[in-house]
Specification:
mainly alpha, homodimer, disordered N terminus, DNA-binding
Amino acid sequence: MQTPTERVKRPSADATRERILAAALDVFAERSFDGATTRDIAARAGVTQPLLNYHFSSKDELWRAAVDGLFDELNRSLASRADGLRGVDELTMSRLLVREFIYFSASHPQLHRIITGECKADGPRMDWLVDRHVRPLYEVTTAMFARLVEQGHIPAIPPAHLYYILTGAGPTMFVLAPECRRLAGIDPFSDEVIEAHADSVTALLFDR
Amino acid sequence: MQTPTERVKRPSADATRERILAAALDVFAERSFDGATTRDIAARAGVTQPLLNYHFSSKDELWRAAVDGLFDELNRSLASRADGLRGVDELTMSRLLVREFIYFSASHPQLHRIITGECKADGPRMDWLVDRHVRPLYEVTTAMFARLVEQGHIPAIPPAHLYYILTGAGPTMFVLAPECRRLAGIDPFSDEVIEAHADSVTALLFDR
DNA sequence: CAAGACCCTAATCATTTGATTAGATTCAGA
DNA sequence: TCTGAATCTAATCAAATGATTAGGGTCTTG
């Protein structure tokens, strides 16, 4: 027997929920929270606009659900990469995790776009974002950098600065992809350019 | 005598125009174009909302005027710095111009915020922004990097990648200042942190 | 199969937004 | 001082936006 409050969901509901979340992530990343309209999200998901309020109580909650999914993916990517590298020395591990972060930034430019969009506004959504998702990543990243500096593998730069250098240098080419295409005439999302960018960033950080 | 079409402007008009432009720059940077409301801009400028349509024909034109002013300031900063360094060797010149760019990013975080905001949307405003303001800066910057690579002063990284590493690593700490304050507990806009960041970025780029 | 919960849509509401209009006020110049 | 253009405000409009309501259709389950 099931508790009285438990809802019996149908598979179709989960499928449309996912389509809405994917569309929401794209639109929120492209237009920021205020600029994103629920009608635009609904159109991209192929549903009517009131359906968003059926699956999610508000635009705000939809945003949170979409961002949760994005960070879940990021954490899974990094965790599984680190898992496959158990036993590898810390310098190599760090290089490869930085590469993994750059690959993720290329396949999910929404990540950095949403962070910058919310950070500019500096409202309650940013508080939620930092406390729930960014801080854990910051802690583990700066701890890693601190060890690398201590071991002399990278220059003596304060970990907080290394963090913002990495989160800036890594994703910016993909965040500014439309500009990059026009300026440099290259597609930042092509495999060669992604590889070249990962090479460039890791070289600057780790090769001396 | 003056031509019939010439308007006789009063000083007060220029003053309020400037106040509106300054407020518009802040609000556009904080909330992106769509999220910025003309009422909010007017309130920060201390005027009524219809006055924006008196001085500027539309929200779009107001945005262009504000962005023009911002890039004028950037170009003046870099030009006057380069001017004061005439005769200095290229490596030192480059280091100091990179520092100048970081100082400007700290004093005007709106620059990178507006670029990223428009680049995400990828609309006609981005075309205007790239063609009118970004391309000249891109050309001179990548040319500089190409010479530095050729002379062996920095690692052999394609200039386009160096450009996005610099425009990412330099401003991101200031663009994400609210996050940085919460995560690292430091104020990115304090003189010490700005200096430390300029040291960090130039060290990674130029010290080998 | 019948009932009820679940999934979804059409119509609509109250607010907010950029822009316009009409008019008040201020200032320069004759 | 007087006139007219320049500057600015109050009132308002049409469009767009997030959300709600009422109801139709569908699947499960007893």
